[in-house]
Amino acid sequence: MRSNLLRLLALASLLGAAPAFGQGIYIDHRVPPPGPPAPQAERMALVRHQVLAEVAESIASYRIEQTFRNLTDQTIEGTYLFPVPRDAVATGLSLTIDGKEVAGEVLDSGQAGSIYRDIVRRMRDPAMLEFAERGLLRASIFPIAPRADVKIAIQFAAPAERVGDLYALALPLKFAAGSDADLTVDVRLKSALPLTTIYSPTHAVDVAREGERAARVTFEGKPKGRADFLLYFARSESEVGMSLLTHRLPAQDGTFVLVLAPALAAAPAGRQARDVVFVLDRSGSMAGEKWDQAVAALKYGLRTLHPEDRFALISFATDVRAYKPGLTPAAAEEIEGAVAHLEMLRPAGGTNIAASLAQALAVLSGDAPRLRLVAFLTDGLPTIGETEPAKILQQVEQTNAGGRARLFAFGVGFDVNTFLLDRLAADNRGACDYIGEGENLEVRVSAFFAKVAEPVLVGPVLEFRGVEVWDTYPQKLPDLFAGSALVVAGRFRGEGSHAITLRGQCARGEKSYTVEGSFPRENRDCAFLAPVWAARKVGFLLNEIRLHGSNQELVDAVIALGKEHGIVTPYTSALVVEEGERLGRLAGALPSAPGPTSGAGGAARAAEEKARGELERLGYASGGEPGDAVPATGRESVALAKKLGFLTGLGSADEVASFAAQHGIALERVTAAGRTLLCIGDFHIDLAFTEALRPAMVEVEAFSDEYFKLLDEHPELSELFALGRDLVFVLEGRAIRVK
């Protein structure tokens, strides 16, 4: 994909309807001859990329800083191109190189388009086509000393794109996938209205609320994978913001994501009272740094209690101890007394999980209309008392009838029983989090207590009127807390503007919120929604198999989703790769496989057999027993539990946002120009391509006159062509192959 002309592609892409920002292109002045680029060492590298943005109302001011490094022993020169958003404020554009202001040339989209296409024709690099409709800032860079760095800073302003009742910012990352640069994104949001939804469907951003009307959104990492960075935000006077995103292709059912985001000050007058039981493992294995962190986290949790709350503090090892019997009013002197009790405890002994849970739930057995929470923290397996996970679960089910108490579990280290903790959380309307070795326990547990400090709606239920909605995830909505967010993904049938109502219990009784949601007949924007929904469903199905035992129907559903959406996980990789190769052979892009599986039907069957074999190897075979999917303890078990937690949405909305490389979910698929394509090396093939379309398939030579004529007639194909020079796609009912 990267040609000799483009020595560096630093965040070069255009994403859908949202304005892209943050991409720079260094162009080497030593231009190689036309034709396929010959491989040779890179001369320039991107070593650091920083995006700083301030958004006031809906206008964003950007500062993009990029640092390039000359990897050669020669002084070199080049040209820096920066694709400018169409609606950028030109008077606000400025260019600084190594701290000195440099005169840059701003070209309109017409001039810029000619330059882009000229580069594509001469250099055979289709990636540049993504910018054909954009303006261009151009500046010369000379000299760049041997082995030296050059820092470039761009400043400009542009409005955020309006998507329904949301505003969208986009940061392209596709072409930085091969870069090892350090990436930092820092977005500050300011609004005259309260901020409700702040949601990234692509990355695990950190959202720090600064009151009702300001927030800071950050991400640090490497620009790996094919996922571009997207950030949505909404402003509303409502106590609970409900923001709807949809995607629908013609004559198909649609996909939606609904973000439920209570405002920071959404907890109504007469705050919902809580009964909170803190349960701490003080067995001998907790000794050391994790004990200190656990005690500090529980101190923080105690101090988040309000006067109308009640609490209990229980610790367990071989025996079970309580700060005081029953529930204690959260008066200041009682909280400090519980803190002093914590400080006197010392880890020693075995792990009596069953008895500690029994005592915690017994404390919460009253009928008062209060939100009941159990925060359960352990680093080990049950070794004292009842040790069979199935029997412990049965005891909890009997004691906590109907899941009245929400149970939140925290597993520390790799010796925890993930099957037990996940079932405890899932069966009791809570969530489970795992803190691995070296991770900061105090930060993670304290963040949980901060999140649940202000309940807004207990037992929320969604109602959709006038439109058919199904396959929604998570299937059981967790309670809503002020300043947090819940992401619901699902499928829909029907069209038009229809009411969406959220109901639940608050301190004043039942409360409901209603918004009008637009469900279109066709909407090609937000193509990422289908894989978001599919990833949620795959996670739900695999969790069901792991926790409750397998059956053929669930396995078939996992395989079907892998086929339809090109989702590659350790459980469906064989299927998707084989299906991609089958489509490639069908299109004539790959050599035919020898033997009985060379036909389309044989390859598909072989792919399913491979996928089933992979599922069986990991314990997901039909007829399996609950908990047999993988070992219930150990590093592999914790890794899988964390992955499925992110997929199913049981974690926080901020964490669920990322289902790409950050959480081990590889999506070997690309959405471009409203199409979903599988990637096989540098070859891309439209999932809509079928055997019936092959006889009339048209072949077009890349960069030929016919290629550019097709692009002139269908400008939206620029995003598709930018994927590479070998692809098969479907256009108006016919198959076209670019070679």
Which structural class fits the helix and strand makeup?
alpha+beta
For the biggest sheet, the summary is: 8 strands, mixed
Measured on Cα atoms, how large is the radius of gyration? 28 Å
* Individual helix count: 15
Describe the structure.
This protein is α+β, with helices and mostly antiparallel strands and 739 residues long. It folds into five domains: 6-235, Immunoglobulin-like, CATH 2.60.40; 240-268 and 455-527, Immunoglobulin-like; 274-451, Rossmann fold (3-Layer(aba) Sandwich); 529-659, no CATH class; 668-739, no CATH class. It contains 15 helices and 38 strands. Strands 7-6-10-4-3-13-16-15 form an eight-stranded mixed sheet, with no helix packed on it. Strands 20, 21, 22, 23, 24, 25 and 26 form a seven-stranded mixed sheet that branches. A hairpin with a 2-residue loop joins strand 33 (669-672) and strand 34. The longest helix has 20 residues, at 529-548. The model is unreliable at 1-23, 29-41, 593-601, 621-629 and 650-667 (pLDDT under 50).
